[in-house]
Structure formats: C-alpha cells, structure tokens
Amino acid sequence: MLEDLTTAASPAPWPAAYPKGYAVVDVETTGLARDDRIISAAVYRLDARGEVEDHWYTMVNPERDPGPVWIHGLTSDMLEGAPLFPDIAEEFANRLADRVLVAHNAVFDWSMIAREYARAESEAPVRQRLCTIALSKELRLPLPNHKLESLAAHFGVVQQRAHHALDDARVLAEAFRPSLRAAARDGVRLPLLECRPLTEWSGAPRIGQQSTGGPPSGGYGSGSWRPSRKRPACPYPNPGRYEDGASLKQGMRVAFSGDTSVDRELLEDRAVEAGLHIATSLSRLTSLLVTNDPDSGTSKVVKARQYGTPVIDEAAFGQLLRDVEPASGA
Predict the structure, then answer these.
(1) Which SS3 state, helix, strand or coil, does residue 319 take?
(2) Is the dihedral of CA 273, 274, 276, 278 positive or negative?
(3) Which tens digit of pLDDT belongs to each residue from 149-181?
(4) Is the pTM of this model over 0.85?
(5) What is the DSSP string of 190-242?
C-alpha cells in the first residue's frame, strides 16, 4: 500500500465533476518512433480520491530487438518467453476500463498503447487521459523541470528502479495522489484530454505485421504500423496569417505544439487533406499555431508570441477544418 503523503484530509467537499477512478500507467518501449513496441507495462488502479485498489505488471515480447537495454534493462533473453501483446490485451483493457488514464507525458504512453491495440485489431477502453506534467502546471508546483524524478522529489517519493514500468507507475501513483487532493482542495479543473482509438490509417499493411529488421531508410518499411509520414509539398501559396473569426484558407502554414487529444499525425493528415501546409517549426511565415497549452513555454509558443502568430486550441482548429476556403484561383 502506498504511503499517505498528504498532511491532512481536505475539509472541502470533493468536486462532483472529478472522475470516478484512475489507471496510473507506465510503459517501457523499444524506442520512441511510431513503429516501436511496448516491452513492459504496469498499471496502478486508484479510486476516485486516489487510493490504491491494486496494481499489475507484465513484460511483453515485442518480436524484435528490445532497443535501448541500457535504459530499461530488458534484454532479448528476458523477453523471449514473455507474452505477446495480443495475449495480454484483454487483461490490460480490464485494468484501464472506465478509468482516466494517468501518465507522465501521457500522450506518449497513450499513443503507444493505442497503436498496440490497433495492431491487435482492437481498441483500448480509454476515453480520457490526464498528464501529470499538465497537472503540475495547473497546480503551479515549483519544479525545476518536468522530469518524473523532480515530481517525485517534490512529494518525497523515493524511486527504486527508474525506467522500470512497475516502479515508475508506483512513483507516479504516489505523486499523483497528493496532486489530486491539492487540486480538489483548491477547486482546480483537471486537465483531461479526450482519447480516441487509432482506427484511421492509409496504405498501411495488415495490422499486426511487424518488421524485425533495423529501421529502414527514407521512411517506415513494409512491416510498420504506418507508412512514411513524408508528404508532398503543399500545392497552394501561403495566403498569410489566420485572422480571428475568419475561416482557414488552403495554403496556410499550420504548426502544432504539445499534447493533442487526436493522434497528432492523424490531425496533421486531416489538415493536409484540407489543403493546409504542415510547418514543423514556427517562423514569421507561419499562419497559425495550434496548442492546448498556450502557457507551456515551448519554443514554438515563445516564438508565436514574439512574431504575433495567432494561437488557437485543438477544438477550435477541428471546427475550422470543417470549412476551409479554397485557395485563390483554385
């Protein structure tokens, strides 16, 4: 059982709008790319007020090289006899069902989980996620950076095995509980984001196939989850900056920053299909920056302020994508 790190119970009533349960998750992977695989997963299930109900851990055979062993410590020999992801998918889903997924840099954990379920021709039963980085910002915690070890140190939580899924999940659960109670005490709105299962892809091979060789050059190979993201140049000229209250126009240069509820690359695909240009960096020519965290202080957000680039959130951008004006002369 986790040690209670709160000093006293909150006298204020618990917010009725808060979720009824949480699944604190950590996954270790073969790498950070779209075609990388989960090699271990851990879940701490918490009730509405952050009390631990149980925990679960498993290794997963990725059917490929395990990647940075020096980080996660899981070798090919250790993973050889582990179950495949489809073998643990049902149990994993039971741990996640009807709960908010909580993770540190949640977009990464959710993306890896969603892709594994997509490969297994299934869906993870997760509809919302909460990133503890975003929550620490909402609480204005005086952290030197956004590393898990800094969050743990703030609450006096001792890490025993960094980059081990079970211990990282334990540490995060211990840090999340006082964070949740502080948010409830102060009436803070939890930074919940929607989780949409990955069911869209184009030209991808049969889900479940996986390349066992090294990373291909020039994009993802025939065994990857999704083809290369390299796109042709936008055929329309840049009409300039987006103006508040107006419509998007084909050719506008759109940049993204931070976490998105829709998988980033699916969102970018939709923008490209509408005739927009995806900018990987922000410049004076950028028409619009899309971010759900305008106070994040990322380089793109900082430059947007410097250049006067318009900034909108993902929900507003999704609405604007429904009616993009054609380019002049198109």
Answers:
(1) helix
(2) negative
(3) 999 999 999 999 989 999 999 999 999 999 999
(4) no
(5) P-EEE-------SS---BTB---SPPPTTS--TTSSS-----PPPSS------
